[in-house]
Amino acid sequence: MSPSPSLSIPPCYRSPGILLHAPRTRGPFPFLCSQSRSFSKDQGQTHNCKGLKFIRGKKQLKDLSTWGIGGPCNYFIQVFDQTQLVSAIRFCREHSIRFIVIGKGSNCLFDDVGFDGCVILNRIEFLEKKEPGIYRVGSGFRFNRLGVQCSNEGFTGLEFAGGIPGTVGGATYMNAGANGQETANAIRSVEFVTMDGKFLRFSRTDLVFGYRSSPFQVMEELAAIIAVTFELQHSGSAKRRQHEYMERRRMSQPVGEQTAGSVFRNPLDMGVAAAELIEKAGLKGFRVGGAMVSKMHANFFINCGGATSQDMLHLLAVVKEKVDQKFGVQLKEEIIYIHPEITDVDLNKDG
């Protein structure tokens, strides 16, 4: 195989369900966890802070990503409510530990070397029915589960979500969509926490969304989305429509394979999907090591077994280069590559 083309995918940029923060020189997070001691360097140790258990050196990132790729992270913790989340963030900041907050891990590529920082797994998974059609949902709640439940209960607006393998927070952050629907159209309000510990709530009218974009992607002080309230309309055909979308997905996408969902965004104002460009470039089934372009849907890249992060990065670069050479279109990634050591992160970079 010819040498790898230059790789334009950034080492880290904001992406659905994933926020990465490098250590900052400002004062520490202002409240909650009061302990202030450094982690031990010993691998496999568990460290406690106000009831939170930080696990060092044992958690494999491949177990946190739908691609099934990635080495160990230095620190790992699960949080189940907003108080735990803020405590974990404060502790990382006090000890100058870079951290990422992830949900389902459905849009990320971890490196085989791992991550020299703390991975915070968002398990804020509550669901509250405020009134008919009004759902307040934790950001770690599975988006596909929400879509199925709302549709089964006779409410329209999130039928497409049944096929989205992410979380509510990630879908909101990215403004996920399919089948003519998108997340933003169903949002009533969003609750989030900032890096200085403030809890804020924005109504839908305060937020400007676009194709696969939200204001949270350029919000430098965002620490994490906490909860989202959806407002849906009653529909007698919602359940049937959701079933139709799921059947269409099963017929057209590699369901059951290790993928990260759509790898590239569809080019704007071109009337052509990224998958069509990749297919017309003759790349369906193209393989690098254990990574392969799906033969069923060209915008899905599969871990066929034993794929490394370098396999996947090389495959991404080859596909981008071939599409650019043939059509003059520069594809932009939906996925994010997490470099093992990030020291200077441009959180506003978008490919």
From TrEMBL:
Q: Identify the keywords attached in UniProt to this record, alphabetized.
A: Cell cycle, Cell division, Cell shape, Cell wall biogenesis/degradation, Cytoplasm, FAD, Flavoprotein, NADP, Oxidoreductase, Peptidoglycan synthesis
The primary site where this protein sits is cytoplasm
Q: Which residue range or ranges hold the FAD-binding PCMH-type domain?
A: 68-235
What are its E.C. numbers?
1.3.1.98
**GO process annotations (BP):** cell division; cell wall organization; regulation of cell shape
GO cellular component annotations, sorted alphabetically? cytosol
Reaction(s) catalysed by this chain's protein: UDP-N-acetyl-alpha-D-muramate + NADP(+) = UDP-N-acetyl-3-O-(1-carboxyvinyl)-alpha-D-glucosamine + NADPH + H(+)
Name the pathway. Answer: Cell wall biogenesis; peptidoglycan biosynthesis
Supply the enzyme class, top level: oxidoreductase
Does the record bear Glycoprotein in its keywords? no
Q: What are the names of the required cofactors?
A: FAD
- Compartments reported by the entry: Cytoplasm
Indicate whether Transmembrane helix appears among the record's keywords.
no
Single Gene Ontology MF annotation: UDP-N-acetylmuramate dehydrogenase activity
Highest taxon listed in the record's lineage: Eukaryota
This chain belongs to the protein called UDP-N-acetylmuramate dehydrogenase
